[in-house]
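Note to self: keep these together.
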Amino acid sequence: MASYKIQWKTAAERDLRGLPKNVIPLILLAIEQLAENPYLNVKKLKGVKNLF
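Structure:
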């Protein structure tokens, strides 16, 4: 499966550094998983066509 590339904005990197040290690895892991499968846990919106 092709993976996507994560591009970090400077502000996002700065905000990440300001978080508690025990939370940062959890966030990075979740973001890495999104790069592999950005449609994980995606649900179709009710009442609209082709929007998730």
